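Narrative of accomplishments. A recurring question from our advisory board has been how the design workflow behaves on a single, concrete structure rather than in aggregate. To address it, we present the structure tokens for one chain from the evaluation set, followed by the sequence designed for it. No filtering or post-editing was applied between the two.
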């Protein structure tokens, strides 16, 4: 039971010297309080112990950790642990994720690995293990990632015919013989640094197929409940239907020359979602398209289009409109534009002139006294916000680390490009995950720029933008480049934690993501901030920690202490060296086995 688990943990830290102090106090409850310890849902057992870089020295005391019989995750990586692989770990029958890399463990690997039939990820790299790979690995039917690189293992590599195995690294050992048939699907770099002759096949990149590792069994159900999502879908569909019916009615009645009537109604009634656009008093009724735009439709076509409400944003309503020729666009209907036609047009010209693969292109705009519209391409996959916070579990495909990195680097490049506009003074003003989409290469692509300065200031109390807004921005019109950097930092935190910038816990307590991350990091338990959905990807901890540091530098309180966006781009690129993106890694010392992204189509 939990009391037993607590006792085992206390004995473990008492007997194993370590240089960083842990907040494990007899008086405080284990679950949620003890650094690095995670319990199951009913808090009856400890299921994960993650203690990387605590400065442990010496061998794991017998009969301590091995008593945590419900343990699923054990990470003691990057310590100075010596001795052999603990014999009594055989008691940890539920172990699924084992990270012991970067220690000084030595001796042979245990002969009978089959006792851990749930093992999914095993990383024992960068130790001093010797002897051969036990053939019992063959029984690990769930094994998805195995990293034994940088040890002194020898003998022949067994034919590990494990269909679930996605990632492998056996480099820099003393293996002999040949690469077994079943492992020839892996690139040569996986076996580099051994006494194994390679067949003369063309060099293959070490990029392994993106992981399709099965998820750990215990996962927090987060996001909206099914009922809520269903409700939203139904509401959205009804609104869409209503919009469609109204459009037809409006269009027909307009034909009967009743234009002025609903123009007046629109003015009076404000922003009803019934119509994508109202009939306006603008004599031209012309959309202004930007150069190079291949769309061939006008306001009349938009008026006829079937429309679906996508959502109500800070600056108005967004609709998905499907035109008669099946072209799908997004029409943003702005409310409370605070500037006259000339200024509006000028701002739109700047926005429309930005052509960059990481900036969503403004295709057209429209200005009349009653109606201000912006037209964009439709991104069918939805926003990063929807991808991160949509209903978890079920059919939802979790956002893997690779994609999150691409979103971050893409969005950073897009914002940096925006900041070069207008003699280096242009501000996005509304960076958040619902304004970031995935471009065709699945890199982040930012939308909704340049609106904050031409709109009325936002009413302070509620606004979904609040969680992204830098503390110095009391008036949205005064957003500046450092406040964009802050908002981007919040997006990074969202990608790393999987949490919304402002969310509630079970007890209805409102949590501010930036503050929460600060408090967790202050407690020196950085690993606890990361999204549980990222746990399945091996060897990304270092990258996550580096990304977290970048995010933290973006959200510092003082605007002038934040990095410039162009520096943020460089920092993120340093986490993943773009130069090595398509090159084989040397194997030695390379802990990462996640595939690097392909060339990131950079700004010229
Ligand atoms: N081009 C697009 N393709 C697909 N969905 C879009 C597009 N533009 C916006 N959306 C989605 O439509 C919804 C409403 O967007 P909108 O930009 O109006 O509001 P928001 O992003 O929630 O807030 P804000 O107005 O502050 O940006 C959001 O869910 C957004 O992700």
């Amino acid at each position: 039971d939990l009391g037993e688990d607590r006792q085992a943990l206390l004995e473990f830290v008492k007997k194993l010297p370590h240089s960083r102090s842990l907040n494990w106090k007899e008086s405080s409850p284990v679950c949620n309080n003890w650094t690095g310890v995670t319990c199951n849902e009913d808090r009856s057992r400890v299921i994960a112990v993650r203690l990387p870089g605590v400065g442990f020295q010496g061998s794991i005391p017998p009969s301590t950790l091995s008593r945590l019989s419900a343990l699923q995750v054990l990470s003691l990586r990057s310590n100075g642990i010596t001795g052999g692989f603990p014999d009594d770990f055989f008691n940890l029958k539920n172990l699924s994720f084992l990270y012991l890399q970067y220690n000084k463990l030595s001796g042979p690997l245990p002969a009978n690995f089959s006792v851990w039939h749930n093992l999914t990820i095993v990383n024992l790299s960068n130790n001093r293990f010797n002897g051969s790979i036990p053939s019992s690995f063959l029984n690990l039917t769930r094994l998805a990632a195995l990293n034994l690189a940088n040890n002194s293992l020898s003998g022949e590599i067994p034919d590990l015919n494990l269909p679930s195995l996605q990632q492998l690294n056996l480099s820099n050992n003393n293996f002999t013989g040949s690469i077994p048939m079943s492992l020839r699907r892996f690139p040569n770099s996986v076996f580099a640094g051994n006494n194994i002759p390679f067949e003369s096949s063309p060099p293959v990149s070490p990029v392994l197929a993106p992981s399709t590792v099965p998820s750990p069994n215990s996962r927090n159900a987060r996001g909206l409940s099914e009922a809520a999502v269903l409700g939203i879908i139904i509401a959205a569909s009804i609104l869409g239907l209503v919009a469609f019916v109204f459009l037809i009615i409006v269009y027909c009645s307009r034909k009967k020359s009743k234009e002025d009537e609903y123009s007046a109604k629109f003015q009076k009634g404000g922003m009803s979602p019934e119509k994508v656009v109202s009939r306006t008093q603008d004599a031209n009724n012309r959309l202004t398209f930007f150069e190079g735009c291949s769309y061939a439709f006008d306001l009349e076509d938009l008026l006829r289009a079937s429309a679906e409400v996508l959502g109500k944003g800070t600056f108005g309503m967004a609709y998905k409109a499907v035109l008669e020729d099946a072209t799908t666009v997004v029409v943003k209907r702005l409310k409370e534009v605070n500037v006259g036609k000339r200024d509006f047009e000028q701002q739109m010209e700047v926005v429309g002139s930005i052509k960059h693969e990481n900036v969503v292109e403004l295709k057209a705009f429209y200005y009349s006294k009653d109606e201000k519209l912006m037209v964009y391409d439709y991104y069918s996959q939805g926003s990063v916000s929807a991808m991160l916070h949509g209903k978890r579990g079920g059919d939802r495909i979790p956002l893997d680390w690779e994609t999150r990195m691409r979103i971050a680097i893409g969005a950073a490049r897009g914002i940096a490009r925006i900041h070069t506009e207008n003699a280096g003074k242009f501000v996005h003003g509304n960076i958040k995950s619902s304004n970031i989409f995935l471009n065709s290469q699945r890199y982040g692509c930012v939308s909704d720029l340049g609106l904050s300065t031409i709109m009325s200031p936002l009413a302070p109390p509620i606004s979904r933008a609040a969680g992204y807004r830098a503390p110095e921005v009391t008036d949205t019109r005064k957003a500046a480049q450092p406040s964009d950097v802050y908002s981007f930092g919040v997006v990074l935190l969202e990608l790393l934690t999987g949490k919304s910038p402002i969310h509630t816990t079970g007890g209805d307590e409102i949590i501010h993501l930036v503050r929460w991350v600060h408090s967790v990091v202050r407690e020196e338990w950085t690993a606890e901030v990361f999204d549980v959905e990222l746990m399945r990807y091996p060897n990304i901890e270092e990258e996550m920690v580096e990304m977290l540091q970048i995010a933290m530098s973006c959200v510092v309180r003082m605007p002038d202490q934040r990095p410039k966006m162009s520096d943020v781009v460089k920092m993120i690129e340093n986490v993943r060296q773009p130069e090595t993106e398509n090159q084989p890694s040397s194997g030695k010392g390379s802990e990462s086995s996640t595939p690097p992204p392909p060339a990131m189509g950079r700004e010229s």
